[in-house]
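Long-time lurker, finally posting.

We've been working with Eukaryotic translation initiation factor 3 subunit M (Meristemomyces frigidus) and I want a structural starting point before designing mutants. I don't trust myself to interpret raw outputs, so I'm hoping someone here can both generate the structure tokens and explain anything notable. Sequence follows.
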Amino acid sequence: MPGIPKLSLVEGSFEELASELATYLDSLKGEGSTVSSDITPLLVTPDPEQPEASGKEKETDKDAVLKKLVTSSSALNGAPERELQAAYNLLIHLISQSEEPENYLPPVCRNLTAPITSSPQNGTGIALGILGTLFNTLQPDDETRYHVLLAIVELVKRSASYETIRPQLANIDSWLSEWEMEPSESRKLYMAISDSASTARYPEESYIYLLKALRTLESEPATPEAREMSLKALRSALQSEKHFDFQDLTALDTIQSLRKSDETWSELLDVFVDQTFEDLADFKEANDTFIADSKLDEDVLDRKMRLLTLTTLAAQASENRTISYAQIAKSLRVSDDDTEMWVIDCIRSGLVEGKLSQQKQEFLIHRATHRTFGEKQWREVASRLDIWRASLTNVLAVIRQQKEEYVREKEAELSGATGGEFGGRAQYRGRNNRNQPLTLDME
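Top reply, 14 upvotes:
Generated this for you. Predicted structure of Eukaryotic translation initiation factor 3 subunit M:
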């Protein structure tokens, strides 16, 4: 694995800098700390007055030194604010000289996610600066970047500063692929991002990363972890005011496993997949305390189900593509006066497009979203394509007929101008004065 590029210009040999950092750690840890005395026997400092080493002399055991330094490095979180970043940079510089720096950076990242006791106000910002620099200096394919990014996400969650990493998260899938992370490690990072987005009140983005985490469990859909995450995703989708398509959930094996472990949750999902507000009312009547016990917002569920019911009505409308106000009010169980409000709300949600007619008391549908897309919908698409093809055939026939008539008229005009059945050549003689008649001589 390639080493870490230098973060800054640090003068001195490994032995000198390690001894300096050990002494600093002892000063932070206080009386009784033995970091410096522990590493001194491990350090071999060449004597400048002696000839160059023959290659047989003892060398510094860098790994043993780094283990002791990294083990004690949590004390750096108590360093004065003005010295904190320099001290961590020195530690990272020493780690970069190891042949396997990935063994030492994860503990350092964990230290940086812990509270900076010497700077409660600015500590998070300083830690993010150190981690950001470290992430950018690692090689793109270095899997150690994973641990650094995980620490960054944890800090972002704590400081509610999710916006600072949003642009970079577009690369998360390619990064994980490049680092060749295990599904469990990818899942841990996805969940951390999801929690961070949720804390910053980005519910839709939180849901997206939660689904990504769920997909890493497709090979083991019935585990307790899969069940817990599936219920979390289902609850998030149901409570979201903007999420109306549930096929992203039903396509997951982990969600399908709920049919055995959590039948009531599965029934509720089925209602929102392709059923109506009346079915939701029946569900609530049959499971009178389920919604309250599950800490679901009933008002949010009712609103969403009314919009989805109206979407279904629009998608199933007859050939004239209209729905009466009375039908809408009955299906949504609302008053006639509220019908237009619900139609407008459905249009704003992007589920339907159309035009309201107060005079005719109906809604003319221009477009409607299908909640599910199966064999029935494919047949409908095929039927509409046949109608469209027949219409185009008729249009082409009319155009062809008009073209043929135009050609015949032109041929008739040309035939008359050239003498028609008499043949020969026509010559026109005339004057510039339009009042004078033209004479036609045939040769």
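Before you design anything, note these points.
The first strand starts at residue 322 and ends at 324.
DSSP finds 21 helices and five strands in the chain.
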